[in-house]
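Can't attach files on this board, so I'm pasting raw text. These are the components:
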Amino acid sequence: MNTVAMPSVHYLVILPEIILTVAAVGLLIASSLVPGRLRSSVGTGVTVIASACVVVDCVFQWVDISRHGPSTTMAHVIIEDGFSVVAISVLAVSLGLSALVADGWLCRERIEGVELHVLVLASAAGAIMMAQANDLVVIFLGLEIMSIGLYVLAAFDRRSARSGEAAMKYFLLGGFSSAIFVYGIALVYGATGTTQLGQLAGFLSANVLRSQGLLLAGTALLLVGFAFKVAAVPFHVWSPDVYEGSPTPIVGFMAAIVKVGAFAAVLRVLASGLFTQQDGWRPMVFALAALSMLVGAGMATVQRNVKRMLAYSSISHAGFVLLALWAASPRGTAAALYYLATYALLVVGSFAVVTVVSADGHEDLTSYRGLARRRPLLACSFTVLLVAQAGVPFTTGFLAKLGVIESAVEHLGWPGVALGVIAMVATAVSGYFYLRVVVLTYAAPLDASPAAATASTLATSRPRARLAALGSGILVEDTRDGELVDHAEVYGAAPANGETAVPLATAVAIAVCVVPTVVLGVWAGPLVELTTRATMLFHP
Amino acid sequence: MTIPAAWYLIVSALLFGIGATGVLVRRNALVMFMCIELMLNAANLALVTFARVLHDVGGQATVFFVLVVAAAEVTVGLGIVVAIFRTRHSAVVDDLHELQG
Amino acid sequence: MAIVDQYLPILGMLVLGALFASASFVASSVLAPHRKPTESKLAPYECGIVPELESPPRFPVRFYLVAMIFVIFDIEIVFLYPFAVEFKALGGFGVVEIGLFSVVVFATLLFLVAEGALSWGPVKRLTKAMPSRTSDSTIARITPRPTDRAA
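---
Top answer:
Structure tokens for the assembled complex are below.
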């Protein structure tokens, strides 16, 4: 009788997945056994508690790492290092906040049941798996666990035809990208004989391949698969449609989870596993980063729908993280991690505000007109979130952009400088469309006039990229926005209907997103320190 | 007589190409699903071939996971198609044009 | 001869399969009640125009849903196969792992049953919606309102 060597399991490391899976399966069983529909607030409670438990587990893991150093477990396919721990805690916080936002939405839409929470928990477990995977197959499994849950979540609003359409598009492009990804795994496996990133790095540093073709093709396919997932240009076409059609609280969750999980995995694959092949993949990342930043920011300026605008802005953000990936240095990794941590909070918070404001189904930018008079606190929060995404100083967004640009420019030579310049141009352009919304928010509200709403949307959507940017990436606002507001004043029709109160859970979530954005933007030390210390195991 | 491994790889690359072309060219959602499945199975064939060449069981074990994931994906996809079909009575992707900007 | 030895179990499976299939046919012909339906009994409609072509069968959506659920449960078994092969070598750890796996799989089955995804037959909601059947409600059911048709 042959025996199988049992891999040792360090349960502290895989506890996040265990917690989330147990919570999901437990909710599923409870909802099947309880007569009638389980109340959705039960699901929210369980999800928030589970995400809090994961954060606590992350603290223990951090202590474990600082005592014993980073390690691998389960036959080296799961890794425990500072990078994974920070990424997991960001994912867990996004999960908890999204559950709070979704709670208000579920109440408003009168949807009972815990299916949404089960799917959200499962998706987050997949993303966490990606963040700590040290093997291409495990990354693939995490990617699919995350994505399959998200396909269903995109279709969650069954009364809306747009939701189904968004899910269909997301599914087709997602399936396509995972097939490409698997083929990439197959080619890398064929070239090196392993899928495990540590062995991969060891093999490639010890051997010189006779022909680079197979490995290069595999790397390219892996990168294309990832680019689809994080919606990097030119693989971004699904993203605005999916963001527009899917239920709004889900979009915030989707944007945060997918970006953090997929970027954590791609950073580990490229900067750790395939580090020696960087001459092969860095040009591709260069193109992806430059195109994503420019096209994302450019297209966002002409959007009329706030969700589409945020979709293009998230494409632009993906470009910034790719910039840090291109740097392929420990500093770049730290900058990317900082960017992801701040971006996750900003995007969840932004979509939480959109969930509240677009309660009547109007996602047009004009419905933000005069928000400051109607709901000063909400408008103030939205301002902070957008201004931070634009990268204005004294917010975390500024430090994030500064970090990635620095990590790229650190590479002397034209490509790094070119990317830095492109990033600053993109920042300047993005400043325009973020601040356009902010100005609209503080504009005087109008009486609902019968003037054609289409005229007002035309007025707001006309691209005006007349911006001046200071060299350091800090930008000044275009004074022409005043003119823009006048246009809207002439034609505009802001909904002046009775406002419903912001649900408490959503308000808490928005506050949790806004406060760190300002506090950590001013008192920058701790988070920067944390991400800098959160190094990757096997990082050269 | 054994068939050289390169032949399997060529077949796998062909299947992958046919699948990818199909996804990009065809407009029926169900046919697009089938093409995605074809791509995944091409990857499976490549994995098994490499596992055979390298005398390593890892590639074959990976195929298990890919198979299960493909089945899960297709189930979700068909569920979405059924949900859309109930409201639209069409599985042609070009008919889905509500979301454009 | 070694090759023949290797393929002998497969041959045995083929023979067993053929035996089982033929036995089922024989058993059904022996056990089933013998009624000779007339030709008009087999026709789709007992009166009216004789159909020239077979109309394509219509499956309810429920059929597709159950088929999809079957696909997913069917493929889960693939994980049981390696476990069954290396059952002894894996020992207690393997039993615990496969037990956990089964719990998760059966939890989803439980959910499906609770949601009514597997209940066949006429949809019960139709009768629940009309507790007191009147002539009005029946007419409403036979001729759907224009809004229903649009939906």
